Amino acid sequence: MITHFTGLTLKTVSIQGVKQFYHGLLQFPVVRESEAEIAFQPTPDFTLVFEEVFEPIAPAHIAFEVAFSQFDSTVRSLAEQVPLLKWPDGNVVEPFDSGVNVYFRDGDGNLLEFIAHPDLKEGVLTPSGKYGVLYLREVGLPVEDPVAARLWMQRTLGFTIAKESEQFAFVIGGTAHAVVVSTRRKWIPISMYALAPTLELTYGVTDERFIDRVRSALDRRMILSDNDEGLHFRMYGYSIRLKITSFPKDIAAKLNLPSAAEGEEVNPVIDDQYLIDGLTALSRGGEVGWFEGHVGGAYLAAYYMQKEHDLPQDVLHGLAANCRHLRAQHEDWFEPYPSEPAQPELMDQLLEGLLPNLTNLSTSGHGVTLGVLGLKALRDRPDLLTPSIVRGLLKLMDDAASEHKLARYYGIEDYTRLDPSEISLSEIPPYRDASDLACRALSELDHVLPDQHVDGRYYFFAGELEHGITHAHALIELERLGYAQLGKLGQGNHRLQTKLNRLRPQALMAKGIEAPTEASITESAYWSRLYEDPHAIKVPYAAMALLQHVPVERRTDLERDVCKLLSLMK
Known about the structure:
The protein is of the alpha+beta class. It contains 18 helices and 19 strands. The strands form four sheets. An eight-stranded mixed β-sheet has the order 2-3-4-1-14-17-16-15, covered by helices on one side. Strands 6-7-5-8-11-10-9 form a seven-stranded mixed β-sheet. A two-stranded antiparallel sheet has the order 12-13. Helix 17 packs antiparallel against helix 18 (552-566).
């Protein structure tokens, strides 16, 4: 697990300037110095480094935690050395809901902060230096898509998220709070543009096992180096390093930080075996046909749903019960393959297998939906990247790339014969980012019609809306996994799918499904039932993931619309 910030490297236009400020005024000890670099030691567990460059610098934002009992005297002492920034009302100290802070700037324009919280237990960490710094608490990470970035950090690095909104969130590991904000948001208190600074951020971690898990989840193209200095990779334009330290993993809990509760990495109700079994069933089912991949896909959806969300126990038990129910009907698909060595080069074949499904709308996007679930599982467990597993997944994707239900959409005998050059998608403009895709996919659920016969033919009106949700989630996952170009390649198919899903008899439009005002995906009543349809697991998982990308103020209404689909599950 991640415990703290152990290092931060920033750029400067003057080594002497930062030395005068950080050593001369803040009295941080200098631990090394050269013509091109200087390193300070604000606390025994954190090193602040500046590298001199001949280039413009985007200011960074960092915050040091100090003792609440000493905050007033700290501010008075600090004010004697540096100008303190004022809020619009003229105050330099502005209490907020959980503490107090004061801001100031260094010679490069970096926005610095001393922050204190009354609930933080004192005496756990020894204050360092003239100003009693306890630890580096915050580092600002402005990004263009903060929702996607924080979800990537949560899923890949095991962070928790607090105080989230569309443009802001704390992404927390131990005592380390990354402030993930939109580049369209300004830093308080002086409305300074939140430009993305050039920095290298080093997180302290507890053990090699954690680094192994992260390493397996990263696209190898993201990794910059992997040696005794730690695992070094790129993340949303930032340089991140994970390094094993001796910093105690329980310090956050001892400090009484609200997000310091330490739980199991995987809930024992649904453990790692679900990933193995789901991947096996997805592959063995795929050998039969794409449709038979649904059961393995449901297993993987259950595994990731519990891994990525804090679910109530009744939901976890409902997931497990439904997985067992599905398995009982297809036990042969869960038979383990003979032992084989993993072959990392097979990952390229999987990506190639996705391409026909990303460039042509077929089977409601199932080749992408199920293929990405398999890809994601193999990224987490590269030891399972074996010829047998991959063979089944490739067969599934190949089969899904050829449509078998030509009259899938209302009023069209064979949608595969539609001329793409004659299809206008002007009413469904290109998606701007993951948040836009998620919002618009979920918004299609404002009117849900049950599956039914029309003019002697059966149409899956609700079912196709389900596929619009799972397809959108798979495209966003591709981007999160580091395959942004593949994700964008498939967005045209999703836009076409949305247009075709809107083809419904006008006479039925007054007969849509309604959902209770307080409807929730995690309702006990839903998870107390057993379902024959694997989408009963796959749709809630995809929808919960999409909801994380939409503005907080819209989530309740959009989740209620998802529950219209769930009310029809059988």
